[in-house]
Amino acid sequence: MKDAFNFLRKIKSVAFATVENGKPCVRIADVMLVEDDKLYFLTARGKPYYKQLKENPHLAIVGMDENYVTVRVTGDIEFVDRSYVDKIFEANPMMNDLYPGEKREILDAFCMIRGVGEIFDLSVVPIERQRFDFGGSVVNPSGYSINEKCVACGICKSACPMNAISEDSIYKIDSTKCLECGRCFEACPNNAIIPPLGL
Amino acid sequence: MKDAFNFLRKIKSVAFATVENGKPCVRIADVMLVEDDKLYFLTARGKPYYKQLKENPHLAIVGMDENYVTVRVTGDIEFVDRSYVDKIFEANPMMNDLYPGEKREILDAFCMIRGVGEIFDLSVVPIERQRFDFGGSVVNPSGYSINEKCVACGICKSACPMNAISEDSIYKIDSTKCLECGRCFEACPNNAIIPPLGL
Known about the structure:
Helices cover 21% and strands 38% of the residues of chain A. Chain A folds into two domains: 2-134, Electron Transport, Fmn-binding Protein, Chain A (Pnp Oxidase, Chain A), CATH 2.30.110.10; 145-194, Alpha-Beta Plaits. Chain A starts with a helix and ends in a 5-residue tail after the last strand. In chain A, the strands form three sheets. In chain A, strands 1, 2, 3, 4, 5, 6, 7 and 8 form an eight-stranded antiparallel β-sheet that branches. By secondary structure, chain A is α+β, with helices and mostly antiparallel strands. The first copy, chain A, has helices spanning 2-11, 48-55, 83-91, 95-98, 155-159, 183-187, and strands at residues 13-20, 23-30, 33-35, 38-44, 58-64, 69-80, 107-121, 128-134, 145-146, 165-166, 172-173, 193-194. Chains A, B: Keywords: 4Fe-4S, Iron, Iron-sulfur, Metal-binding. Chains A, B: It comes from Clostridium aestuarii. Chains A, B: Ferredoxins are iron-sulfur proteins that transfer electrons in a wide variety of metabolic reactions.
């Protein structure tokens, strides 16, 4: 989890998604600080983004580095006291170009206090993915899975584009390699395949 | 608008935000095709992302290039016929690595049919932004504005971190330079400043 947060801090400019009137909104912003295994951000009180977070304090963020490794985190946010604005300016001196001197007063800092996430490596075939949670949230396992209705016919294995399915008394899906495309689910003649929940 | 779409196609891997149970979800994916001023994408029927789009066919996307130019687009999507899956594979041959041969059958293509967007250049101070709409949507103007209650006291001008406010009989805000931080709004003693609507 800490690695995932530092990854986001390193690539820094990532996408931040919120909800307004039931519709998605997204913009590029920076992960400003990682401290005590928490992610800190800034926004200005006049922005639609700020109002969205006040009304619906849930945030999803994603970033990809130059090696096609993706980190996604989604969780609950809380606004934090103003000392974090100063801390963030110390850690991100270029903020002074946008908000010189006292102009930083219009900014508020907030923090993702709990949530779930995933590291996803698209540079390899099969892909690799790993989920994590923090702050008391519990993450859903990734990937499709196979239940006891399986008759080991092998149809799912040949349907999988990732070779993520292996033979056994009943077949098994390697959740770290599953793209969640659902081709095994559509192919299985025995309803033995269970879809994953979202992140 | 066409420039904005081609920008997204060129940087290709951008963030796609959806809504599930009122909460934001976001992932990195590719803009697969720009044709007739429409944006085309793919997803697999088994993914949570697909279910989110079926239940709530609104999508927000954002990408930033190496020069810190950002394009955001948000709008309504529709699933399109399967010929687009083949068209997309022709335009994006690396898709064959993930979904070789007939395995592409699990994919469905969709299109953003109408929406609004913004080009945002963060590499310059003051920033520059420009909005657009397509397919019949009407975009809200960006930026704060000043109404006739203005007494030309100049407080807003000195509050603005972007020097986006100029003097006249009543003061004016250059909406292409406005960060929407709201500092002028908080500073104005006459309630003469009007907040923008979201994108």
